[in-house]
Specification:
The protein is of the alpha+beta class. The longest helix is centred in the N-terminal third of the chain and has 20 residues.
Length: 137
Amino acid sequence: MKKTFLGFAGLAASLLLLSACQSSKTPANPGGSGKSASLRVMEQVAIAAHKCWIASMDPAFKSYSMANELNNFGGAPRFLLVPKNNYGGKPLLVVQARGHSSEVEVFGPLMGEAVGSRIGADIGRWKSGDSGCGSAA
């Protein structure tokens, strides 16, 4: 009985040592941050949009507030432009990415307005990594 116990203890110790020597091969995220591609791109776009449209008090966006939903549970990090001081209001612009893609979708009534072409150009620039504000419409 004592031999069996010692044999079992030796086997357990060997397995423990062997597992400690193994390298952990977890799939690495290319960005190294543990974030999906959609969240990474939406963070950079949302930061630039807030800086260039809202914080700068750009006249083209003075009637809107920005509502961030980057950590929503639907798998589509996004931000919305809503009527100023009405975060529950109907979104006038939705900017989002889905799943593991770094593609950004932009839609809503503002895209049909004069400022729509500027919004498209700004979003395109920001998703490629350029955080500059460009020029006003």
